[in-house]
Amino acid sequence: NQHGGIILVTTISVHHELGPGLLESANELALMQELIEKGLLVRRQVPVQLSYKGVNLGKAYEIDLLIEDEIIVEIKAVLEMHPIYMAQIITYLKLYGKKLGYLINFNETLLKTASKELSITCNLCETLCFSRSLRFAAKMSGFCAGPGICKPTFH
Fold first, then answer.
1. What's the distance, CA 97 to chain centroid?
2. Residue 17, Cα to own-chain centre: how many angstroms?
3. Rounded to an integer, what distance in angstroms lies between the CA atom of residue 8 and that of residue 70?
4. Are 49 and 56 in contact (CB under 8 A)?
5. Of 119, 115, 130, 107, which Cα lies nearest the Cα of 10?
6. pLDDT of residue 73 exceeding 90
7. Of the N and C termini of the chain, which has fewer Cβ atoms inside 10 Å?
8. What is the SS3 string spanning the chain?
9. Strand ranges of the sheet holding 71-76, from the earlier edge strand across to the other edge
10. With contact defined as beta carbons under 8 Å apart, do 140 and 94 qualify?
11. CA 121, 125, 127, 128: dihedral to nearest 10 degrees?
12. Rounded to an integer, what distance in angstroms lies between the CA atom of residue 70 and that of residue 89?
């Protein structure tokens, strides 16, 4: 993914400039500015509507960054990454109907080990986004027009 490469290079550049230890919001603003300067369409704190049993409950979440209306970037600045953060971005991808996201922890000395790319596809179309930074891929149901035979698997 062309945009994914730009996001990763830009993330590393921002981390190199700012270093670890800042709040998520500071890293989010800097990353957004850099991506805009590179010509990408970036939206910040994008509301995600939640529907429960057919009833729209309104805004339930906010996506940190939405790039080119296709890639979700969830930014963290934490001492330790927990599985709940991966579950969070999977939820955002499902609720917003997107297939590619990045989970980035800026509170690491080496950012290369602190970012995860998440690509959601299905067993029918088998389209996964492979790149040098691929750490995590999930195949989930709900993203294919086929009969819905997808099963979650993680790599």
1. 12
2. 22
3. 15
4. yes
5. 115
6. yes
7. C
8. CHHHHHHHHHHHHHHHHHCCCCCHHHHHHHHHHHHHHCCCCEEEEEEEEEEECCEEEEEEEEEEEEECCCEEEEEECCCCCCHHHHHHHHHHHHHHCCCEEEEEECCCCCHHHCEEEEEEECCCCCCCCCCCCEEEEEECCCCCCCCCCCCCEEC
9. 42-52, 55-67, 71-76, 100-105, 115-121, 134-139, 153-154
10. yes
11. 40
12. 14
User: Which residue shows structure tokens 């550049």?
Assistant: 13
Whether the CA torsion 79, 119, 68, 148 is positive or negative: it is: negative
Condensed to tens digits (0 to 9), the pLDDT of residues 17-56 reads 998 889 999 999 999 999 999 999 999 999 988 888 989 9
Q: What token pair was written down for 91?
A: 């939820």
